[in-house]
Structures are given as C-alpha cells and as structure tokens.
UniProtKB/TrEMBL annotation:
Pfam families: JAB, MitMem_reg. Keywords: Cytoplasm, Initiation factor, Protein biosynthesis. SMART domains: JAB_MPN. Deubiquitinates activated NOTCH1, promoting its nuclear import, thereby acting as a positive regulator of Notch signaling. GO terms for molecular function: deubiquitinase activity; translation initiation factor activity. Component of the eukaryotic translation initiation factor 3 (eIF-3) complex. GO terms for biological process: formation of cytoplasmic translation initiation complex. PANTHER family: EUKARYOTIC TRANSLATION INITIATION FACTOR 3 SUBUNIT F, EUKARYOTIC TRANSLATION INITIATION FACTOR 3 SUBUNIT F-RELATED. InterPro entries: eIF3f, EIF3F/CSN6-like_C, JAMM/MPN+_dom, MPN. Belongs to the eIF-3 subunit F family. It comes from the Eukaryota. This is Eukaryotic translation initiation factor 3 subunit F. Transmembrane segments: none annotated. The lineage of its organism: Eukaryota, Metazoa, Ecdysozoa, Arthropoda, Hexapoda.
Length: 278
C-alpha cells in the first residue's frame, strides 16, 4: 500500500533542488521537477532528479512535459536503473495545483511520491516532507483524493558522507572560516578520523564511568548498543594488531606514492608537449 512507503533521499538530490530554485525565473514562485530512483521492499530511494519548466496560473498549470520525457530518456541511456518514482516541488506546503501535477506522474509510475523542500526556510531550516496521494470516497458516490505524509529520511553513500564533511568545513558564522576547501591527503584523513574516534571513545568511557559511579541513570538501550559494539570488535593480540596495521599502512603509502608518480608523469608530459610545439 502507498501509506506503507518510506522515502530515502540522497544529498545530491537536495543540492540539485536548491540549485534549480536559485536559478529560477524572476517571476516563478516555486520550482518543480521529476524524482528518479528505485523502489524496493516499500522503500523509495531517490538518487537523482531534474527540473521541469512550468508556469502556474490561478486556474491551470502549464508544464513542458515533452522536455521532461526527453531528459528522462537521456538519463536512462546513462543510468538504466533509475526510473521515475515521483516529483518534487519547492515550498513548505501542498498547493491546489499539486493534485493536477500528481495526476501526470501517476500515469508514469505506480504510487508516485511527492517531496516538498522548504527553500524559503519558514521554520528556520530547510524542511523536507514526503507525501503520497490516497483516494477517498464512498462506493458509487463522490470520489476524491488527499495527500498523506509518509516518513522521509536523508541517506548517504560513503563518498557522499565524505563530501558533506568536506562542505561542512566552509560553514559557520565566523569570518575566519574559509569559503573554499580542498580534499586532504589520505594520511591526513586517517589522522583526522583517528582524532574523532578518540573523542568518541572518551565520551563512551565517561558515560560508563558515570553509570558505575551512580552519577547518571543507566539506559538499557545504550547498554545493549555498547555490548554489540564491544562484541563486534575482532579479538586479536597486540602482535596481530600491529602486523595488520603495518600492512595497511604500507599499502596506503604505496598508493600515495603511485599517485604522486602519475601526477609527476602527467606534468612532465605537458611540459614535453609544450617544448615540442615550440
């Protein structure tokens, strides 16, 4: 059933929606577009999207549907796994025209989802909501439909997590924060991850000590999570751990050295090309 669906949106989709909103025409109040992704076991995973030019009037909506189908066909040539799963719109609420637009997407896929992104920041943040359209009415009587909210979350692949962490370094009200950032070297990433892990372990140890000293009330859910964490750590001796760590460090250093050699070779090739052209 449509009400049992759950929506998971990737960060790249939100970035594309915000970018389309920033590039909108001056007379446009909101922007709409198509959501692409997959549906599996009641979970709608949205991995891509694109904007659909449209105009809204008091009594009608005009959308360039042929443009939308052309863009979808081109995307299918690049990624055949992504299909239409619904549509998106900027704003903090469902409008009167939403049902008209939803009817079109209902012809393109089963149970399309409608995602709204509050780019106007009505609640002080960019709200994210998802809806499905549910039919209402009585048998042999008047029929209607209603947009009903369904759960929605933001999910990330590992590379997306790294990209978001890199983007967060440019955030903040302080004028000392850089507006640009660059990917760091692999060893620097390992050092940064190690420092974060140390901080998290200190927090866990502090919590456990406070519970043992009866300074705070124990939480059974937290205790079970900590037990699962401890049991997930492989049991090995100090010698086994040192051997594994040194082996991984050697592999990492080899990759870094190869990348530097390739970069140097490319630079030399560019210089040789310039010299031969002269």
């Amino acid at each position: 059933m449509a009400l049992n669906l759950r929506v998971e949106v990737h960060p790249v989709v939100l970035f594309q929606i915000v970018d389309a909103y920033e590039r909108r025409n001056a007379d446009s109040q909101r922007v709409i577009g198509t959501l692409l992704g997959s549906l599996d076991k009641g979970v709608v995973e949205v991995t891509n999207c694109f904007c659909v030019p449209h105009k809204e009037y008091d009594d009608q909506v005009e959308a360039e549907l042929s443009y939308a189908m052309d863009i979808y066909d081109l995307n299918r040539k690049v990624n055949s796994n992504e299909v239409i799963v619904g549509w998106w719109a900027t704003g903090h609420e469902v409008t009167n025209h939403s049902s008209v637009i939803h009817e079109y997407y209902a012809r393109e896929c089963n149970n399309p989802v409608h995602v709204t992104v509050d780019t106007s920041l009505q609640s002080g943040r960019m709200g994210l909501k998802a809806y499905v359209c549910v039919s209402l009415g009585v048998p042999n009587g008047k029929q209607g439909s209603m947009f009903t909210a369904v759960p929605i979350d933001v999910t990330c692949y590992d590379p997306e997590v790294f990209a978001l962490q890199l983007c967060q370094k440019t955030m903040g009200p302080s004028s000392n924060r850089p507006r640009q950032t660059h990917p760091v070297q692999d060893l620097s990433q390992v050092a940064e991850a190690g420092n974060k892990m140390g901080v998290l372990l200190d927090q866990v140890l502090s919590y456990v000590e406070d519970v043992l000293a009866d300074r705070i009330k124990p939480d059974n859910a937290v205790g079970r999570s900590l037990l699962d964490l401890v049991n997930s750590v492989p049991h090995m001796t100090n010698e086994q751990f040192s051997e594994m760590f040194n082996s991984n460090v050697k592999d990492l250093l080899m990759v870094i050295t190869l990348s530097q050699l390739i970069k140097t070779q490319l630079q030399l090739n560019e210089k040789l090309t310039l010299l031969t052209s002269v």
